[in-house]
Amino acid sequence: MNYISTRDLKQQVTAAQAIARGISAEGGLFVPEIIPTLTDEDFANLCKMNYPQRASFVLGKFLGDFTAEEVDYCTKGAYVGTFDEDKPAPLHTLCDGTEILELWHGPTCAFKDLALQILPFLLTTSAKKVNGGKKTVILVATSGDTGKAALEGFKDVPGTEIMVFYPSDGVSAMQKLQMDTQVGENVCVYAIKGNFDDAQSGVKKIFTDPDVAKKLEENNMLFSSANSINWGRLAPQIVYYVSAYCDLLNRGEKLDNGFNVAVPTGNFGNILAAYYAKKMGVPVGKLICASNANKVLTDFLATGVYDRNRSFFTTISPSMDILISSNLERMLFELSDRDASKTVEWQNALKNNGSYKVDAEVKAKLDDLFYGGYCDDAKTKETIKTVFDKFGYLCDTHTAVAVNVAEEYKEKTGDTRPMVIASTASPYKFANSVLSALGKNASDDEFDAVEQLKAVSGTVAPTPLAELKGKKPRFNNLCEADQMEQVVLEYLKIK
Ligand SMILES: *Cc1c(COP(=O)(O)O)cnc(C)c1O
Q1: Which amino acids bring their CB within 6 angstroms of ligand 1?
Q2: What angle, 0 to 180 degrees and rounded to 10, lies between the N-to-C axes of helices 446-457 and 173-180?
Q3: pLDDT at position 396
Q4: pLDDT number for residue 81
Q5: Cα 303 to Cα 291, 298, 355, 413, distances in angstroms
Q6: How far is the CA of 267 from the centre of ligand 1 (A)?
Q7: Residue 57, domain member (yes or no)
Q8: Residues 405, 288 contacting (CB under 8 angstroms)
Q9: What value, to the nearest 5°, has the Cα angle with vertex 440 and ends 437 and 441?
Q10: Are 400 and 387 in contact (CB under 8 A)?
């Protein structure tokens, strides 16, 4: 099982190389040469397994140059003793035919934990194989949740340093506190003056700057990425769709016509994982791509034109406030039958003009696979309230976007197949927004909001969030987007 780059088919690397590097030298993203498939017998076996075992089975298919022991070491390290009740991805039945796939029972209360608890294991195992003792430097651009999840995953991991950049005005108070209070001897956190796309572009630029690479090389260091451009982030996300299917089968659900999946989408990593799960043989029907007011993907799926030249909105679902969805590159590579030159053409047009148009064949495939929809903050809040009033279930702002778009899809199409909705964060992570959605007064103090939310909903706040109360921030760094390279070199003391 080798990996190729979306921008140059001749770039062939092993799984360990793909994960250790994060991104291909010419800027492309690594994808498996072939997508492995699961047989009925495989699924029957998977149904009998617990989550870490399922993860070993699925990831083993992608990690060609890992031994079975190494794969098990990674999955056990990531998924045993780290998630509530050792259930990383439980299903909650909202109502007949609608399941909520709760992906926020990990240490940072967002779905990013599913991948970022295992990535440090995958990365250090890979680095041992291919980097010959070099220190791995992780740079992360975050819209809020990735940063904290990556910090938790990588804190004090030997042989690594991690730096996180978040948009100073683009994360929730709780997300900011989570990151600024991070412990660990190998961590550094910066707010940047700019939005998520500025942070992401800044990180990409540093990664691909040959002068910076040379400086690292001279100091026995190497960059890697914990963003979902890294295949080591994506592969673990495929597992929870396989696992959800097994859980449904175990319950005796009738899935002859498959089930639809609705995903609150930003960088297109989570929904891409659902697509790969489908390719592997999970009977996923429609992939429902749900956006907030930053609806660049909704428009793209409707027209075939990706156009980031538009106003950027700061919303109550900040982890989806994104105008450049990096992982769409992998999707378009697949749908153009792995045409690297087309991929390069589109990505260059995006870089140079901020837009591109896919051809008719790719558009037709997109139409077949996806439904795109969006909802604004008002609709998001309305959905939180309706879901709570009707079903007694409290969902966060991101999940609510997906619930709303899933409903819209059902109404528009009459498609009655079961729906699995990816729930990407705990409502307590966005306590103020959720409170105001329920018609209560928001509070200036995040922990007042948590207390109020507990009282109103009768639910329990996750321990990792409750424990933040009274913690003093450790980091208070702010820089311009164009200073990112400088602060990285300073932190690494290789200026
Ligand atoms: C990251 C994130 C998303 C978006 O996921 P992508 O894989 O980037 O599309 C949605 N919701 C929450 C809570 C997130 O943290």
Answers
A1: 110, 112, 145, 228, 264-270, 319-320, 398, 424-425
A2: 120
A3: 97
A4: 95
A5: 15, 9, 12, 19
A6: 7
A7: no
A8: yes
A9: 110
A10: yes
Position 489 in a domain? no
Closest to 135 (Cα-Cα) out of 24, 215, 59: 215
Q: How far is the CA of 143 from the centre of ligand 1 (A)?
A: 9
What does the mean pLDDT of the chain come to? Answer: 95
Expressed in angstroms and rounded, the spacing between residue 264 Cα and the centre of ligand 1 is 7
Number of independent structural domains in the chain: 1
Residue 283 is part of which domain span? Answer: 87-109+232-462
pLDDT < 70 positions in the chain: none
Report the CATH number at residue 295.
3.40.50.1100
* Cα(204)–Cα(139) distance, integer angstroms: 9
483 in a structural domain: no
CA-nearest residue for atom 2, ligand 1, is 319
User: For residues 109 and 117, what is the distance between their CA atoms, to the nearest angstrom?
Assistant: 12
205 in catalytic set: no
Contacts of 227 by beta carbon, 8 Å cutoff, 6+ apart: 22, 140, 141, 146, 200, 203, 233, 267, 326
Can you give the pTM of this predicted structure?
0.94
The two three-digit tokens of residue 442, written as one number? 């928001």
Does any domain span residue 48? no
Q: What is the pLDDT of residues 215-224, one digit of tens each?
A: 999 999 998 8
Q: C-alpha angle with apex 365: 363 to 371, nearest 5 degrees?
A: 85
* List 112, 295, 363, 429, catalytic entry: 112
| 57-93 confidence digits (pLDDT tens) | 999 999 999 999 999 999 999 999 999 999 999 999 9
